[in-house]
Amino acid sequence: MVAAASVVVAAGTVSGVISASGPDVPEARPVSSASPRLVPLPAVPSASPSPSATVSASPSVRPKRPSTPAPRSSSQAKKTTASARLYRHPASRVLDWVRAHPDDPRRPVIESRIADQPAAVWFADWSPDTVTARVRAVTSGGAAEGRVPVVVPYAIPGRDCGGHSEGGAPDLDAYDEWIDRFAAGLGGAEVVVILEPDSVAQADCLSAGERAERFASLARAGRVFKEANPRARVYYDAGHSGWHAPAKQADLLRRAGAASSASSDGVFSNVSNFHGTADEIAYDRAVLDALGGTGLGAVIDTSRNGNGAPADGEWCDPTGRALGRAPTLSTGEARIDAYLWVKLPGESDGCKGAPGTFSPSYAYDLAR
Question: Are strands 119-123 and 15-18 parallel, antiparallel or unpaired?
């Protein structure tokens, strides 16, 4: 498999992703948890696709270099967040489509299986003047409902190594300021922060000096978030089970501050990818074992991994995929804090529609 950069489409200002933006490792699969799965629904005649409303897009990630992690089991249980309820932000491309197409025959399936699920919200533009208010709108909305929002800061300089999702802040000083303003919107209730997908696993494109500077800013970001809101749970980028070996990924994460309780609650994996949940559980536990630290856990993006990764390594809207485990903060798995839908199912990687646009036909194929 050819190494490839992430393709996180950073259009607009906020991306609502339903909870919760590559190949399975078959060996040493742990017993899967009993958290709810989505039950297949009968087919509905396909209607002609309609363009989705313009809302900023959630990520799409190409598969990276394959690796063979050495999964390890762990008996160390991590205390989970008290609330098992996740927040669905009322703004996303899928919700816009559902509202605009009440008579589409695919609507009931897409609405019940995707649009009604809780949502992660992406902040993919560097906008210091508005980011505090926009983050606060999400966190206050979750707090008002007694639910836990998931927010995704995604504005690191050099994002996506200049690929499809290039952009972000002009430099790290500007990024640090943006992070300060982001933190000011976190409020005081529970919130999950998925800090900069690909920022650690994809750092090989940077020079040693650039990596050190980026990692220092990421460590600082975690500290700033947790100082602003002690109930914020901050997770760092662990890539996925088909990318770096656990020891290498853990070394990168340690340098980015992920082993310190002052900045981190653990790691996240599989964002916008397709690796099976059992493989990600084994991989994340191996990363955590190698990382060290106290009381760290992991969260897994299960939005499109119901059938695992395609055997041919296809990353762009591959056929035959399915929704994965329902989003939850109660996984029943030691050291696995949550299953989240960080990537919004139905938002295209660029093959079934323009990158980041909502494709009802793709969403329906994933959901039925």
Answer: antiparallel
Residue 42 burial (C-beta neighbours within 10 Å; 0-12, 13-18, 19+): exposed
Please name the residue that has the structure tokens 């993006």.
301
Measure the CA–CA gap between 32 and 71, rounded to whole angstroms: 14
Instruction: Give residue 231's identity as a one-letter amino acid code.
Output: R
List the one residue out of 166, 251, 240 whose CA is nearest residue 1.
Answer: 240
Of residues 24, 198, 284, 337, which has the active-site annotation? 198
Per-residue pLDDT, 60: 53
> Does the active-site annotation cover 349?
yes
φ/ψ of 175, rounded to 5, equals -65, -45
| CA neighbor of 355 nearest in space, from 366, 344, 365 | 344
- Known active-site residue 365: no
Catalytic residue chosen out of the listed positions 24, 104, 160, 289: 160
User: Cα–Cα distance between 362 and 368 in angstroms, integer?
Assistant: 10
Query: Mind listing the pLDDT tens digit for each residue in 233-260?
Result: 999 999 999 999 999 999 999 999 999 9
Is the Cα torsion angle 121, 127, 132, 137 positive or negative in sign?
negative
User: Catalytic residue at 317?
Assistant: no
User: Taking the complete model, does pTM exceed 0.85, yes or no?
Assistant: no
Q: What is the rounded CA–CA span in Å between residue 363 and residue 29?
A: 28
Tokens of 364: 């329906």
Which of 24, 284, 349, 365 does the annotation list as catalytic?
349
Which residues lie across from 102 on neighbouring strands?
none
